[in-house]
Amino acid sequence: MPGMNRIRRIGVLTGGGDAPGLNAVIRAVVRTADRLGGIETLGILDGFEGLLERRYRKFTSSQVRDLVGKGGTVLGTTNRCNPFAMLPEHSATGAARIDRSAEVVRNAREAELDALIVIGGDGTLRIARHFGELGLGIVGVPKTIDNDLAATDYTFGFWTAIEAASDALDRLRDTAESHHRVMILEVMGRDAGWIALHAGLAGAADVILIPEIPYRIHAVEAKIEERAARGQSYSLVVVAEGAVPIGGQPSWRDADAGDGHPRLGGAGDRLARELAPHIEHEIRVTVLGHLQRGGSPVPFDRILATRLGRRAAEAAVGGRFDTMVCLRAGEVSEVSLDEATAGQKLVDPKGELVATARAVGVGFGDERG
Ligand code: F6P
Prior knowledge:
The chain is an alpha/beta fold.
């Protein structure tokens, strides 16, 4: 693939959890490639699984016309397929894994893919980097609602998730106020607190608990009581699914969600159990879950996805492989896949966003309130 004089056909796949904006990237890739001299785009179904099983879908510019505002991914995705470490068919999760990467490379060549655009989060991009080492011409596009990829200012899907979470807080406020309750909203984000922090700021939460600032239950209780003493008979608490009490562990449901990460969940219920003996309010827990991942992308995510898709198609056609397109200081650019997969971006507990939240009275469950 790399080193070819002319790119004629580009493959595109989406891997890992979906995020609003994936279809807008696909649309931009197809249309840009087409306009760069009739270069074909072959969609690969269900991530790397589609390359293993040779399941494809051809796209023309007119077929992707309406995709910019459509949630999900028309290509399908999975977070359970790493061709370098596959479970043999029909075997239990503990069985020894086998390396089927050579089949992927063979099928990509057979499909005459001169480049492969991989839209994914850290796990998918790491797999893509290894395929780059095996000779596939890889261009990555960063995707996750968690916004925790170090090499890009924002990932598309993040602001759509914030919209869903802050809308949920607005709704919870109404009913919290009516019933004088403490409402806990559990949001996604894995071990990064970006969704909780942004949603909490946008939705005027009283307490925001994030993995980067371990909490003490008595500090949360003190915040709720401080509000009650000022005549505020209800409180809104946003808890990230990865939030941890000081000296504790994140609350998880499964040790492995299939993608090497534990499946987090239960942080809201745990917090309610911990708080209940200490406060007089009734407590209710809402888990927002996959409502944060579905739905039509907000305009920021549509535009970012379109910009990244265009740039990815140009990088692929220009033979600039082993790269990931990204947004830095407001400009779309490219970084090496090595750099892109090197680090995770976490909330800085001493950063400006946390300081702003504290300045307007938000508690983080730590010694500072
Ligand atoms: O990484 C995106 C994300 O939505 C996380 O915020 C969440 O922990 C996880 O994926 C959920 O994954 P699944 O869809 O496999 O339950």
